[in-house]
Amino acid sequence: MQGHDYLARAMLGDNQARVFALRTTEVVKTAHGHHQTTPVATAALGRTLTMGLVLGAMLKGDETISLQIKGDGPLGGIVVSANSKGSVKGYVGNPHVDLPFSAAGKLDVGTAVGKGNLHVIRDLGLKEAYQGTVPLQTGEIGEDFAYYFMNSEQTPSAVGLGVLVGVDGVPISSGGLIVQLLPDAVADEEFIGSLERALSQMPAVSSLFAEDMSVEDVVESVFQGIPVRFIGKEDVRFLCDCSWERFEQALMTLGTEELQELVAAGETIETVCHFCNKRYDFTLDQLNMILVELGNTRE
Ligand SMILES: [Zn+2]
């Protein structure tokens, strides 16, 4: 029996590295429920959702972050959005992509994603946004983010992401373990050596989180022999914040003329949220109401 989903923060050694460890089994199950992803799509989306929560945990206050993986593979890209409060949402272009296993007998996430770029967009509020872009390394997501941290943020990092998926595409377990070297430790060869040993002996992340262990137990088991100090924990969840009002706002941006044409053609409008597949249908009456509102705001 796995525990609930949460993220734990820890420091290693004499504050030489920081760790983000999290179980995301329920997060990825919810995503699968919304999108009916095939096993390889579940793995790709699950790894990226897990990474979104880690990057979200690095934010402050009302900041949000978007991850866009734009690859040329049959998955058709991945979009994930997260905030600093442990909420994440996401989707893939083609949730029904089906691929044979890789030569190593694994879900072939790298082939599904293909070649392309990883974009990280941090929205710091007040219309201020920071964007970092790096080329995809393997499309396996973990290596791609390790490369991003090194090249965009100059932070040496080890990124382990894993989703264990059943044949029906439903995740059995999911989690992540991210270690980042802090500036003072970069020249500490002894500490780096012990860290590298621990990481080289680490079992697959998905199997670690499949067991009846707390997130803290997982961290302790990976970093045996290195002092671990836990400094916080936060619940995480898949949560879409879409609403009828938000789609109404989007329709308003079409403008009076275009909406009048739709009403004249007697068309209702069906909109679907990419992130959670919820449908919002606008009837002719409702479209007329929006036109009245648009008229009022003009005056
Ligand atoms: Zn939604």
Overall, the morphology is: elongated
The beta-strand count equals 13
Helix content: 25-40%
CATH topology of the largest domain: Hsp33 domain
Spatial strand sequence of the major β-sheet: 7-6-3-4-5-11
CATH C-level class of the largest domain is Alpha Beta
CATH architecture annotation name of the largest domain: 3-Layer(bab) Sandwich
CATH superfamily of the largest domain: Hsp33 domain
Largest sheet: 6 strands, mixed
What value does the Rg take, in angstroms?
22 Å
Number of helices: 10
Q: Which regions are unreliable across 5 or more consecutive residues at pLDDT < 50?
A: none
Tally of discrete structural domains: 2
